[in-house]
Structure formats: structure tokens, C-alpha cells
Amino acid sequence: MIDRARSNTAQLGHKNVEFRLGEIENLPVADNAIDAVISNCVINLSPNKRRVFEEAFRVLKPKGRLMISDIVLLKKLPVAIRQSAEAYIGCISGAVLKDEYLRTIRDAGFKEVKIMGEMKFPLEHMVNDPTVKKIIKKLKISAGKARELADSVVSVKISGVKPRIDRRKALSLRASSSLAKCNFRSRSSNSVVDGAQGLIMTST
Ligand SMILES: C[S@@+](CC[C@H](N)C(=O)[O-])C[C@H]1O[C@@H](n2cnc3c(N)ncnc32)[C@H](O)[C@@H]1O
Questions:
Q1: Among the four 97, 126, 177, 203, which has the fewest Cβ within 10 Å?
Q2: Which residues have CB under 6 Å of ligand 1?
Q3: Residue 138 above 50 pLDDT?
Q4: Are 66 and 113 contained in the same domain?
């Protein structure tokens, strides 16, 4: 896939596009390097969504933007669907509740987290989807249950911003800087003074 993307880009002559193969839980990108992180329908597949948002936060520059589209749930899915491989591949059973999803983004440090759009899948659309068709057939889901499923799954577009100051880091740096200052008083070490000054500068 990456080879094809690279060759398409070369054919089109784009010089400012780069593809890197990696996992969303371990982005092959340096800290504070990126202006915007976008993603479409992938994070629901990750078993460690917290780590995904922490990674997005890490690679973004201060004031960098997160803009994602994903599948979330309005209510918990029945156990049979939660355990279905087909439903996982179909981006349904890996999805979490909307509130939990938003909380995970905020817990990673993002501010101004907003839902920019939300869309339910019409039942007719869902039952005609080949993957959903398979799930309905395999799990012998009744028409009523299919309607319940269609009412539980939504596609959301969410935006967030990495604040200019990473408050969580600032707090922990402030704590370490007080510690460093204490060390300085007791040990009079230059390296600790440098460290403490650096830490204070970063945290203010
Ligand atoms: C539903 S598709 C995404 C659709 C695509 N983003 C688009 O806009 O057409 C899911 C993709 O996510 C990839 N994927 C799943 N888990 C991943 C992970 N942990 N890290 C990176 N990619 C992952 C899959 O290989 C698959 O290509």
C-alpha cells in the first residue's frame, strides 16, 4: 500500500508528501513536529485508544490540531456482536461509547474537544452493507435487533487542539523543578541549577 502511494505521488510530481509505515500506537514521528493529525475510521480498531491519542498529542506542535472521523457507540453492543470478528473488521465491535471516546481525547491533554458532525447510518444502508449483511446472517440478528444496532452506532467528526502549554507536563516539570531546587540547596551542583532553570523556563 505504501509502495503504491509513493509511486502515485511520484507520478503526480508532489514533492511535499511523505509516507511512513507505522502503528497509530507508536507513530514514527518526532515530538512536537506536526501541525495537524487527521484520521478516518481507524482508531476504533485500536485496542489501546488512550495510547493512540497520547501519541497524536506527543507528535503535534503546540497549537497543533486533531481532526478525526470515527465510529462510536451511543449504547453498549450485545455480547454476541462485541465478540464478532466480522463486526470488528466492520469497525463496529472495536468502537467504544461516545463519552468514553471524548474523555480519552481530553485525558490525553487535548483542549477545545468538539464534535463537528455526527451521523447515524440509515438502517437500509446498514443492512445492505456486505460486512453487516454477513454479521446479521451469521449471528441470526432479527429485524428488531438490526434496528437497535443501527441506532447504537454513529459516525462522528471530532476536533481538538494541543494547548500552547502542556499543562500536565508543566505541572510535573514544576514538581521536578522544585525537587531540583531542593537538590541544589543541599548539594550545590551546577548541573542541577541548569536543569532547574531549564525546567522553570519550560513550565512558565
Ligand atoms: C477502515 S480502514 C481506514 C480507512 C481509510 N483511513 C480511508 O479513509 O479510506 C482501517 C485501516 O486501518 C489500519 N489499521 C488498523 N489498526 C491499525 C493500527 N493499530 N495502526 C495503524 N493502522 C491500523 C488497517 O490496516 C486499515 O488499513
A1: 97
A2: 23-25, 40-42, 45-46, 91
A3: yes
A4: yes
Range(s) of the domain holding residue 156: 2-164
Q: Is the pLDDT of residue 192 over 70?
A: no
Please identify, by atom number, the ligand 1 atom nearest to the C-alpha of residue 52. 19
Q: What is the pTM of this model?
A: 0.79
User: Is residue 187 located within the same domain as residue 121?
Assistant: no
Number of domains in the chain: 2
Using the mean position of ligand 1's atoms as its centre, give its distance from the Cα of residue 4 in Å. 16
Cell readout for 47 is 485496542
Pocket test for ligand 1, best of 24, 40, 45 (most atoms within 8 A of CB): 45
- Going by CA atoms, what residue is nearest to atom 10 of ligand 1? 42
Check which CATH number belongs to the domain holding 19 and give it: 3.40.50.150
Number of neighbouring beta carbons within 10 Å of residue 31:
10
Strand pairing category for 60-73 and 34-40: parallel
pLDDT band at 30 (very low <50, low <70, confident <90, very high): very high
Region 112-134: mean pLDDT is 85
Domain identity same for 94 and 170? no
Task: Give Cα separations from 73 to 65, 92, 150, 176 (angstroms).
Answer: 24, 8, 10, 40
Nearest CA to ligand 1 atom 12: 42
- Sign (positive or negative) of CA dihedral 125, 136, 70, 14: negative
